[in-house]
Amino acid sequence: MKLPTMTLLVALISSTAANEWTLYCGISCSDGTAIASGSDYQAASCTNLDSSYEYCYFESDESWYYAVVYQNVDCVVSSDGPETPIPPGGCTSAGDFNSYQVALNL
User: Fold this and answer.
1) Predicted pLDDT of residue 75
2) What keywords were assigned to this record (predicted)?
3) Of 22, 32, 75, 76, whose Cβ has the fewest other Cβ atoms within 10 Å?
């Protein structure tokens, strides 16, 4: 194997490993359960949570990922159930969250 090919493979492996993200939800911004995690973007599909959570926070290696949590199931937005975006390192205010999406901010 030539050196440039090996360098390219190492770079691709490193970039894949550096795309980790995790959404946590729980009773505070520091005491949460990992709800979802990934290392690649699979599209911003909605997922309903198994139970309602008061706080959600998001961790990501890359700034272009963010999470959006919803008070309503099925990621429905209404006047009494708005969406709440969470940037990497961010946490929601107290709420009643029942669904989420992970998206890209390009």
Assistant:
1) 94
2) Signal
3) 76
Sign of the CA dihedral with 98 first, then 55, 33, and 45 last: positive
Residue with tokens 């990992």: 34
Report the predicted TM-score, pTM, of the whole model to 2 decimal places: 0.77
Q: 3-state class of 5 per DSSP? A: helix
What SS3 class is residue 75?
A: helix
Residue with tokens 């939800």, as numbered in its chain: 25
Which CATH number does 20-104 carry?
2.60.20
Give 3-state DSSP helix, strand, coil % of the chain, rounded to 5.
Answer: 15, 45, 40
- Is residue 44 within 8 Å of 83, Cβ to Cβ? no
